[in-house]
Amino acid sequence: MLFPFFAAAVFLVATVSANLRRYEYIKQFKIERPQKPQQVRYDPTWASLDTRPIPQWFDDAKFGIFLHWGVFSVPSYKGAWFWDFWKGPQPQLDVVQFMQANYRPDFTYADFASMFTAEFYDPNYWADIFSSAGAKYVVLTTKHHEGFCNWPSKYSWNWNAGDVGPKQDLVGNLANAVRQKGLAFGTYHSLFEFFNPLFLRDQANNFTTQDFVREKTMPELYELVNTYQPDIIWSDGEWMAPSSYWNSTNFLAWLYNDSPVKDKVVTNDRWGSETMCKHGGYYTCSDNFNPKTLQQHKFEDPTTVDKLAWTFRRNLKLEDVHTMEEIIAILAQVVSCGGNLLLNVGPTKEGTIPPVFEERLRQTGQWLSVNGEAIYATKPWTHQNDSATPDVWYTSTRADNGTVINVYAIVLTWPESSNLTLASPVTTASTTVTMLGYNTPFSWSPLPNSGLQIQIPAIPFNQLPSKWAWVFKLTGISN
Ligand SMILES: *[C@@H]1O[C@H](CO)[C@@H](O)[C@H](O)[C@H]1NC(C)=O
Ligand SMILES: *[C@@H]1O[C@H](CO)[C@@H](O)[C@H](O)[C@H]1NC(C)=O
Ligand SMILES: *[C@@H]1O[C@H](CO)[C@@H](O)[C@H](O)[C@H]1NC(C)=O
Ligand SMILES: *[C@@H]1O[C@H](CO)[C@@H](O)[C@H](O)[C@H]1NC(C)=O
Ligand SMILES: *[C@@H]1O[C@H](CO)[C@@H](O)[C@H](O)[C@H]1NC(C)=O
């Protein structure tokens, strides 16, 4: 009698713990995104706005491209903060000296604008790069802290790409090209501007006045939404003043209730000095946010291919550029923890994407063309990284009720022996192991406690499906 009782007890414990795990999963990933979005109206308060589910397309997309392009692409030195480093409250000596050494004494930042020529800008070619990269969305700086609008804005007289420099609508032309390739289009927009007199006056008034917001920031944001119907609004430049100064909650309530993009639009968390990592849509928390642990809220990691800047720099060195191994590692880590990767490159003032960036993007696409099954539309698994073998990151696909269907082990370092030890998966009699892009299943043996040892056959070099990381697909896993 003892044995059946014991077996029943084990079964009961296993069932209860499986249900608990399912409950935890549902708690983390389902409540935020109910199956049927209800037709609710949102109040202009964080308490109400924060209840809006993040549209599913964004969680499924996993990978987007970020572009920092503007007048700062003309000096193409130091980055998007060039003007502030030169003329701001705390000038940087090397930038001041760079200007003294290379430009006439009365040169102003505004003089750079006519040199922002974009004569080789081919939005269809850019869209081809991003689509080949396997990206599902593209986010362009429509206006960075310098205040220059990359679209012919009614609210930025003579400081926009229609009036000066490119003499064309950089935003609209890219939106059309990436959408033709089936990608979503997002607009980065900075709330504040370094030297706008209206902003400086509101700041001097301790933000008790809102003239800059009423006359510049908000009209611009409404204009962007109504003209380009962006799929993402990537807000930034929020930290100087609380969201009450920026009027952010009123804007977001309009965006979610009444705007032409109310059902599909996704926003981030940079809407006021108190909001980052707390309020808004998905969280970005910081630049290069790669937490390496499971997150409770949808996040996105903005990471730049040039480790030192978001914008193109003429003094870029090869050693400053993330390697393919690093890019794939960040993608695997971010996705396994529930995030998206927004990989940034800086185009040149002529409108080209430097070939080293183009190569990184196209090679990311090569990897995704074999291994995308382990990335797109996946869900975090029970474990994010393996408990015994370093550099192994997991993702999964799940049924609607949360039950795991496939587990993907993304192996960043080729195992030293012909055996790969994975300690975290709990195997069953029906467990199978394959490598994405390689047809023959691998044999495996259970480890004494839990987990498995996979026997990797001698794969001919020309049949190895990937160059930078390898994905082992496991089925019949019970955790
Ligand atoms: C802004 O705040 C500072 C410090 O609290 C104060 O000294 C200053 O008078 C205030 N300025 C205005 C315009 O209210
Ligand atoms: C803030 O938004 C509300 C609602 O759209 C509007 O009535 C108000 O004028 C806005 N205030 C500013 C400073 O933009
Ligand atoms: C991986 O998992 C182990 C626990 O199994 C943990 O101690 C470790 O910090 C994790 N993270 C990384 C980056 O290895
Ligand atoms: C969950 O869904 C899958 C696939 O639809 C099904 O096979 C499984 O029995 C379901 N499990 C539970 C506990 O409902
Ligand atoms: C790999 O695992 C198999 C089966 O467990 C074992 O016979 C073999 O010795 C292992 N090889 C290495 C290099 O550890």
Automatic annotation (TrEMBL):
Listed GO CC annotations: lysosome
Gene Ontology terms, MF aspect: alpha-L-fucosidase activity
Enzyme class: hydrolase
Cross-referenced Pfam families: Alpha_L_fucos (PF01120), Fucosidase_C (PF16757)
Signal peptide extent: 1-18
Glycoside hydrolase family 29 N-terminal domain sequence ranges: 35-373
GO annotation terms (biological process): fucose metabolic process; glycoside catabolic process
Keywords: Glycoprotein, Glycosidase, Hydrolase, Signal
EC number: 3.2.1.51
Span of domain Alpha-L-fucosidase C-terminal: 384-475
InterPro entries, alphabetized: FUC_metazoa-typ, Fucosidase_C, GH, Glyco_hydro_29, Glyco_hydro_29_N, Glyco_hydro_b
Reaction equations catalysed: a neolactoside IV(2)-alpha-Fuc-nLc4Cer(d18:1(4E)) + H2O = a neolactoside nLc4Cer(d18:1(4E)) + L-fucose; a neolactoside IV(2)-alpha-Fuc-nLc4Cer(d18:0) + H2O = a neolactoside nLc4Cer(d18:0) + L-fucose
Functional description taken from the UniProt entry: Alpha-L-fucosidase is responsible for hydrolyzing the alpha-1,6-linked fucose joined to the reducing-end N-acetylglucosamine of the carbohydrate moieties of glycoproteins.
Family stated for the protein in its record: Belongs to the glycosyl hydrolase 29 family.
Assembly and interaction partners: Homotetramer.
Protein's recorded name: alpha-L-fucosidase
Taxonomic source organism: Candidula unifasciata
